[in-house]
Amino acid sequence: MIDQIFIGLFGVTAIYLANHPLERVRRWGCISGLCAQPFWFWTTAMHGQWVIFGLSIFYTLGWLRGVRTYWLRRPA
Predict the structure, then answer these.
(1) pLDDT tens-digit map of 7-48
(2) DSSP letter string over 49-71?
(3) Among 5, 7, 14, 64, which residue's beta carbon has the most beta carbons within 10 A?
Protein backbone atom coordinates (compact mmCIF):
# COMPACT_ATOMS: atom_id res chain seq x y z
CA MET A 1 0.00 0.00 0.00
CA ILE A 2 2.81 2.44 0.86
CA ASP A 3 4.52 1.65 -2.44
CA GLN A 4 1.35 2.57 -4.35
CA ILE A 5 1.10 5.89 -2.50
CA PHE A 6 4.68 6.80 -3.40
CA ILE A 7 4.28 5.63 -7.01
CA GLY A 8 1.23 7.86 -7.35
CA LEU A 9 2.75 10.82 -5.53
CA PHE A 10 6.08 10.82 -7.37
CA GLY A 11 4.55 9.78 -10.71
CA VAL A 12 1.93 12.53 -10.87
CA THR A 13 4.45 15.09 -9.64
CA ALA A 14 6.94 13.97 -12.31
CA ILE A 15 4.41 14.38 -15.11
CA TYR A 16 3.32 17.78 -13.84
CA LEU A 17 6.88 19.06 -13.46
CA ALA A 18 8.18 17.56 -16.72
CA ASN A 19 5.53 19.51 -18.64
CA HIS A 20 5.98 22.83 -16.87
CA PRO A 21 6.77 25.77 -19.18
CA LEU A 22 9.75 26.95 -17.09
CA GLU A 23 12.95 24.94 -17.50
CA ARG A 24 14.05 25.62 -13.91
CA VAL A 25 10.87 23.83 -12.77
CA ARG A 26 10.73 21.25 -15.60
CA ARG A 27 14.17 19.90 -14.72
CA TRP A 28 12.79 18.51 -11.44
CA GLY A 29 10.40 16.19 -13.28
CA CYS A 30 13.10 13.63 -13.96
CA ILE A 31 14.19 13.70 -10.32
CA SER A 32 10.64 13.00 -9.15
CA GLY A 33 10.29 10.27 -11.76
CA LEU A 34 13.47 8.60 -10.56
CA CYS A 35 12.21 8.74 -6.97
CA ALA A 36 9.23 6.60 -8.02
CA GLN A 37 11.32 3.91 -9.68
CA PRO A 38 12.46 1.97 -6.58
CA PHE A 39 8.80 1.61 -5.60
CA TRP A 40 7.96 0.33 -9.08
CA PHE A 41 10.77 -2.21 -8.91
CA TRP A 42 9.77 -3.32 -5.42
CA THR A 43 6.05 -3.77 -6.07
CA THR A 44 6.44 -5.46 -9.45
CA ALA A 45 9.07 -7.88 -8.11
CA MET A 46 6.96 -8.72 -5.04
CA HIS A 47 3.92 -9.47 -7.22
CA GLY A 48 5.81 -11.27 -9.99
CA GLN A 49 4.83 -8.71 -12.64
CA TRP A 50 7.96 -9.22 -14.68
CA VAL A 51 6.83 -7.46 -17.85
CA ILE A 52 6.08 -4.29 -15.89
CA PHE A 53 9.38 -4.76 -14.04
CA GLY A 54 11.11 -4.78 -17.44
CA LEU A 55 9.21 -1.69 -18.53
CA SER A 56 10.31 0.02 -15.33
CA ILE A 57 13.90 -0.42 -16.47
CA PHE A 58 13.10 1.54 -19.63
CA TYR A 59 11.27 4.23 -17.65
CA THR A 60 14.34 4.53 -15.44
CA LEU A 61 16.52 4.98 -18.51
CA GLY A 62 14.15 7.68 -19.74
CA TRP A 63 14.29 9.56 -16.44
CA LEU A 64 18.08 9.22 -16.42
CA ARG A 65 18.13 10.85 -19.83
CA GLY A 66 16.33 13.79 -18.25
CA VAL A 67 18.98 13.94 -15.52
CA ARG A 68 21.67 14.02 -18.19
CA THR A 69 19.82 16.71 -20.15
CA TYR A 70 18.87 19.02 -17.30
CA TRP A 71 21.51 18.37 -14.64
CA LEU A 72 24.71 17.07 -16.24
CA ARG A 73 24.93 18.97 -19.52
CA ARG A 74 27.34 21.83 -19.89
CA PRO A 75 25.73 25.24 -20.27
CA ALA A 76 25.89 26.64 -23.79
Answers:
(1) 999 999 999 999 999 999 999 999 999 999 999 999 999 999
(2) -HHHHHHHHHHHHHHHHHHIIII
(3) 14
